[in-house]
Fold these 2 entries.
Entry 1:
Amino acid sequence: MCRFLAYKGRALLMDEILYGPKNSLICQSINAHEMEEPLNGDGFGIGWYTHELSDFPGLFTSIRPAWNDRNLRYLAQKIKSKCFFAHVRAASKGEVNESNCHPFHYKKFLFMHNGDIEGFSVIKRFLRRELSDEIYDWIRGQTDSEHFFALFIDHLKSICENPGLEDIVMAFKKTLTKIDEVKRENGAEGCTYINCALTDGKHMVAVRYVSDLKEKASTLYYAEGARFECHNGICHMVDAHSPEHAVLVVSEKLTSIEKDWKEIPTNHMITVDEDLKVNIIPLTEGVVSAETKKAV
């Protein structure tokens, strides 16, 4: 099911989050605690923004296990950013190659996913028919994740040329609705699990969604405060008693400090605006599948 983290706040050295916490993302790559299969060794990726250089993110992906990649260790000690993503992969759809490693990148946007679109092999052809020529040709990999992102980008482009946070939220809802519609029309069975995060370097959105509420959604948490810091192996989110602010979204808690972490409710999304204001938004009736309606 993969593991990921998304950070937005004051400039932070990537090493502090990737390696510092007791249950860091690197630890989760070999021994995740909140999933049935603890191993996420089918590659990794990091994406980050350095806005003084470019609005487009930097990206590094590899098919090596994150726990055993010295290049990642070196890079994490040298990359400092106000906004970055990191992902460790457990392959379910698609081969183990760099084209299938998250985060996926389109222009200013980074996207990563922890979940599964069951029945993807049935709907893949029909899903690709929904795409514009540009986005169809942009796809490089085989995963349900990248195809979901591709559909999202097309929906976003149809809404606005210069999208803001509200446009991103609307595009997510339209994408979830379309996935459920295509599955229903083509007899694709099974549940859709979407735990994902997206950013354009200024805004950040993460979604926790399951199409059938009889099924358990994958875990997703967030922490917010003044800043995240590690000292002598002790990592925590410092309470917001200063003008500083920081937000972390993770598929699995990085520490055992319970007060730092809040669970994002099932079928909700978290949004973080340019001023780091956090909102939790319920997904509307329009994205609730027939299976979910029966369970409610």
Entry 2:
Amino acid sequence: MTARQQPLRFGLVGTGYWAQVTHAPALASTEGIEFAAVWGRNPDAARSLAAPYRATAHSGMNAFLADIDAVAFSVPPDVQNAIAIRAASAGKHLLLEKPIGTSVAEAGRLARTVRQARVASVVFFTARFRADVRDWLSDVTSRDGWAGGWAIWLGSSLLESSPFNTPWRRDKGSLWDLAPHAVSLLWAALGPVASVTADAGRADVTHLVLHHESEATSAVTVTLSAPEGAEILDLEVWGDPGRSAMPAGPGQPVTALRTALAELADNARSGRLGHPCDVHFGSEMTRILAAADRQLATVRRTGAGGPEPANR
């Protein structure tokens, strides 16, 4: 940021656990932006979150939007989608959580609004903003001959003790919470996803087979219902170059979010609207997830689409 540039004023929508431990600290510590405002459905919670950062807590959306240049979201997808459309229409740049909608129609409306308003957008697919993962992806995409890959993420967010055990996760499960991260990484490593085949296991266990435009195929298994001792996050690609594993560990989400915020702010200042993880990529992700969701609904309702018996 040059001496002549004013910090980009960001407002935070949401006051829950993720907003407290990730969004607020990142907003308060990213160079070139100012953490200026908070809006939440609970005014007391908004005041409590805003106070340590000397941000303004707003109870009205009009006043909140008038006070800022950009919005960071930490709320469930359906709440985010409606407010993001309103914010983009008001000319505010958007730092979004995934998914950007839980239907193709929702995601499409938001993407169209962002395009028409000519505002910058970034969707926070966390690992896509980790420096070590970006280095790994750069190495993978510099070599040809990858035939496929796999991702497995066994999480325990639906345990009663987890701060991530929220109503929207209980309702939508791992397909909408964890699968977007895995699909995003495999997309970046192996190319855009052309189609998906989905199957269901116990609870919210979800299996996806992705067909990439590169003709590579990849497989994803995710759940939020694993016991703590079974938790794992693993992603690899394979092919002529051998095998290559994504760097292990969850990384530091605050550091990753600082990167996402800085890149959004740079785009907003420069007038660049595109980003590898922008709202249009988020809309494509929703298309894949919605197709999988339709298949899973059929599997769970009728049993059709699952494996054929081996002893026929």
